[in-house]
UniProtKB/TrEMBL annotation:
Stored InterPro entries: 3'-5'_exonuclease_dom, Exo_C, HRDC-like_sf, HRDC_dom, HRDC_dom_sf, RNase_D-like, RNaseH-like_sf, RNaseH_sf
PANTHER family per UniProt: RIBONUCLEASE D
Lineage: Bacteria, Bacillati, Actinomycetota, Actinomycetes, Kitasatosporales
Protein's name in the database: Ribonuclease D
GO BP: any one term: nucleobase-containing compound metabolic process
Organism: Streptomyces palmae
Domain HRDC: 247-327
Cross-referenced PROSITE patterns: HRDC (PS50967)
Amino acid sequence: MTDAQETAAKTTLRTTGGGPPDDGVAVPPAPIPLLEPREGVPPVIADPVRLEAVIAAFAAGSGPVAVDAERASGYRYGQRAYLVQLRRKGAGTALIDPVGCPDLSALGAALADAEWDLHAATQDLPCLRDIGMVPARIFDTELAGRLAGFPRVGLGAMVENVLGYTLEKGHSAVDWSTRPLPEPWLRYAALDVELLVDLRDALEEELDRQGKLDWAQQEFAAIASAPPAPPRKDPWRRTSGMHKVRRRRQMAVVRELWTARDRIAQRRDVSPGKVLSDAAIVEAALALPSNIRALGALSGFGSRTGRRQLEQWQAAIDRARALPESELPQPGQAVAGPPPPRAWADKDPVAAARLSAARTAVSTLAERLVMPQENLIAPDTVRRLCWEPPAEASAAGVAAALAGYGARPWQIEQVSSALARALTAHSA
């Protein structure tokens, strides 16, 4: 950026950041549209030979490396990466096709000592891990924005509010499995990492000004060191509209249809919703059709559903209808931890009072620290603490309990005394 642009960016940051604006700061200038990457749109790297050159260039670069990934959510099965974007000082920008280059572990190893700058890191890290890219250190610009108190933390909003540029965001939900990728999409993808390191530097300065930089670094370290999430238990229970399904036989229909749909979607490599909608699954479960004609009359299956498709869905329904009572799913999913908060007043009124007081305390602290409550302390942690409070409800006892739930040191320091007061005020 030019000196004038850097001045404009700093002015924007001072007037829109989490802390109070400085007295007498001028209104920031209108944002500048960012239409082209500095070195133009780079070619897509889709073969091992050209990938080797990129690895060498990025290994020889300096400073943090901006990293982003594009998936085909809603179009393809799973969450694999279909494009990886990187930018580093001395190396420029690279666009890599993980379909042509499915193993990027050598690139990940070449960048092992670098800090990786990502926006909403938890969204991209799983698909990057699948292709061999695992960072040791990260800086998450979205999370940094949350901790700094920015009201809008999407990449476009952050680049505009902090750096004074506008990004074109019209291609965020396209089918990135398309080949070849259109030029406008590639330009959009390259621009996503164009200013990511600049954004990181400005946010680091702002966090330091607010006294929150160490907090952010603890959060980044926790994300980078977190193990892969385990597979969900009974994922069919997350079918949209599942709350309408009350009877166990109907639940069995949802389970059979969901499983059949997932198997087909995986084989075809398409989004499950493109095979059969959640609404159709729930409709069939509620109706319990006994034959193909009755199934085809349901709106979720419609006239465009072929006979062969109807037969496979009816077969799944018939399997559920034939199950003995002992094999039907139970109405509730066994979960570890406390019950839903709405049930606390009936199950344990004292715990409900503790939770109300604790939530008020966290809300007050979060407002004073200018950050979302869920970033100050995880709501699930607060619920667990209030449902089964420590034997010693002092600040030290609460701190030990919070540490056991995985809270970071900075969070414990900020909330333990307030939560201890909430617990002792409503002890049994």
